[in-house]
Amino acid sequence: MIKRGFLLCILLLGIISQFPIVRAVSKTYTWNPPPGDHGAFEIHVETDDSWQTDLSATVLIRVTLVDKHWSFDHVDIESTKAELRASTFYIEERFEVERATLEDIGDQYERRIDFVIPSEKLNRGTNRSVSIIWSMNIDVVDNIQWKHWVYTWSNSDNPLIVIVFRPFLSTSEFEMVTYAIIGIAGVTIGVTGYVLYRKIKGRKREVVTREVAMIRCAYCGTLMPKTSNFCPHCGTVRKV
Fold first, then answer.
1. What contacts 24+ positions apart, CB below 8 Å, involve 182-187?
2. Rounded to two decimals, what is the model's pTM?
3. pLDDT at 28
4. How far apart are CA 165 and CA 169, in angstroms?
5. How far is C-alpha 39 from the geometric centre of its chain's CA atoms?
6. Is the pLDDT of residue 12 over 70?
7. How large is the average pLDDT for residues 56-77?
8. Least confident of 21-25, 201-205, 223-227
9. Do 110 and 157 fall into the same domain?
């Protein structure tokens, strides 16, 4: 019983270790391109609930125009780049944008970027802090002077931090182990049920055999079941 309980605890710990407890993270930045009269932007970045190696995780970047100068005509978002940086690896994703234009206060630009971190980047059963760093190029157009100003902004000084987790078993390995455990459990239950069935059936036969009383024939003295109407030896009708 103790061994079974120990094995069950190990199994439960293994299952729990497959699922990290990591919450979604988000951060909002404010960007005022110099000299300060070309508008202001609110930039919101958020991630999925948890990041796990070999599975896709999404970073959402949303840019909102919250203020603009009276001469400001519009801004064109030229490109967006996001990076994952950790002590042991670096992953970059770059996206070119076809003139995402913000003209009025409240206009938004939104980009979803998917990352997949290979499992070999982390040891089994470990977590690692990863920085999400992104940059954006914009082209501000002035409708009075008919000039363009190009600015680049990055959150490298204040990155968004996520936790990446690698379970002890990969998804395919975990499925194989799960199916194997289910198969072994099914065979064990079947064998145990069959053994119990044979034992119970044998006990019932013993009980029935003990309950049948034997009597002797009044004529020849042969033993016969009390429920018999005729003697199995001489064939005489049993006297009641």
1. none
2. 0.60
3. 93
4. 11
5. 42
6. no
7. 85
8. 201-205
9. yes
What is the number of domains present in the chain? 2
Looking at the structure, tell me whether residues 101 and 206 fall in a common domain. no
Measured from the Cβ of residue 134, the count of other Cβ atoms closer than 10 Å reads 22
Any residues with CB less than 8 A from the CB of 121 and at least 6 apart, and which?
53, 86, 88, 89, 128, 164, 166
Residues 6+ positions from 29 with CB-CB distance below 8 Å = 42, 43, 44, 45, 155, 158
Peptide bond into 118 cis (omega under 30): no
DSSP structure string for 133-175 = EEEEEEEEEETTTTEEEEEEEE-TTS-EEEEEEE-SS-HHHHH
Residue 218 lies in a domain: yes
Q: Percent of the chain scored above 70 by pLDDT?
A: 76
> What's residue 3's pLDDT?
47
Q: CA-CA distance, 155 to 44, in Å (whole number)? A: 11
CB-based contacts of 96, cutoff 8 Å, min separation 6 = 78, 79
